[in-house]
Amino acid sequence: MSEADLPVEARTVRLEVARTSADGADAGRRDVFDVPYDDRTSVLDALQWVKDHADPTLTFRWSCKMAVCGSCGVMVNGRPVLGCETFVRGYRTSGLVVEPLAHAEVLRDLVVDTDTFLGKLAAVQPWLVPAGATRLPLVDAPAEDPAPDRGEDALRAHGPSSGSLQTPGELAAFKGFAECIDCMLCYAACPQLDPAPDFLGPAVVATARRWDEDSRDAGELDRADVLDTEFGAWPCIQVGACTQVCPKGVDPARALRDAQRVATETWEARSRRG
Ligand code: SF4
Ligand code: FES
């Protein structure tokens, strides 16, 4: 009788999970579990089954279970995926080897440190820099008295016609890059994070391009100071693995190509001017 002929309650899949304790003492340990599954069982469901029925100490991250929050990324059989949208049925014969995302420090089991990534993200000012904006200090300013509540009438008076309007074409210029959910799968897939761990990396450059391409933004020169550097956009050698694994279709490889092209054009223009 084949696996597919078995009643759902009798189907199990082999799940091998990398384990690391909080003090790092048992790094390299692997635990194996036989996990029941049906056609709707995700990798995240399988990990939760282990936590509920076999080992409550197994540690992993998730929040939305709908491919939106970006927190459930893991390596499955060597490929970075979102655990909540990857189904066990695709591994029924091979089994699953589940490991923490590559190119990130492991804090415990499948949980990796995100601080390095978030630090790189902050470096490219991932927010709208309006023309003529006053630079905000990077430390908390003393709290001021709250602004008086002007009420709904005042809000209506400053409705959409007073904002920075965009055409559909202007929106389309950056919308693809704005889909990023900061899941770090592209970092796990990038071969350049090994030789150049300080490389800003795919998602950060995609985010920088998201704002550079925004018609309301005037922060391109500030971001260029970070992108056109040894560890900015230049370590990318266009393997394209980042784009292949991205669960949101962001195409960070194109963002890196664009960033390198813009940096080259800017350098050439400055050289011509002498
Ligand atoms: S670019 Fe794609 S893979 Fe990389 S962090 Fe954003 S959503 Fe995830
Ligand atoms: S749990 Fe939010 S993306 Fe998977």
List the helices and strands and how they pair.
Elements lengths: L11 E8 L9 E8 L6 H11 L19 E4 L2 E4 L13 E4 L6 E3 L2 E2 L2 H9 L27 H7 L10 H8 L9 H5 L12 H11 L7 H8 L13 H5 L6 H22 L1
Parallel strand pairs: 1-5
Antiparallel strand pairs: 1-2, 3-4, 3-5, 6-7
Bound molecules: iron/sulfur cluster and FE2/S2 (inorganic) cluster.
Account of the 3D structure:
It is a single chain. The protein is α+β, with helices and mostly antiparallel strands. It has two domains: 12-112, Ubiquitin-like (UB roll), CATH 3.10.20; 115-129 and 166-272, Fumarate Reductase Iron-sulfur Protein, Chain B, domain 2 (Orthogonal Bundle), CATH 1.10.1060. 31% of the residues lie in helices and 12% in strands. The chain has nine helices and seven strands. The strands form two sheets. A five-stranded mixed beta sheet has the order 2-1-5-3-4. Strand 6 and strand 7 (111-112) form a beta hairpin. Helix 6 (202-212) crosses helix 9. The radius of gyration is 23 Å and the shape is elongated. FE2/S2 (inorganic) cluster binds next to loops.
Low-confidence stretches: none
Beta strand %: 5-15%
Rg over CA atoms, rounded to whole Å, is 23 Å
Given the helix and strand composition, which structural class is it? alpha+beta
CATH architectural category of the largest domain: Orthogonal Bundle
Any ligands, ions or cofactors bound here, and which? iron/sulfur cluster, FE2/S2 (inorganic) cluster
Average pLDDT rating = 89
Report how far apart the termini are. Answer: 77 Å
Number of domains: 2
The portion of residues assigned to helices is 25-40%
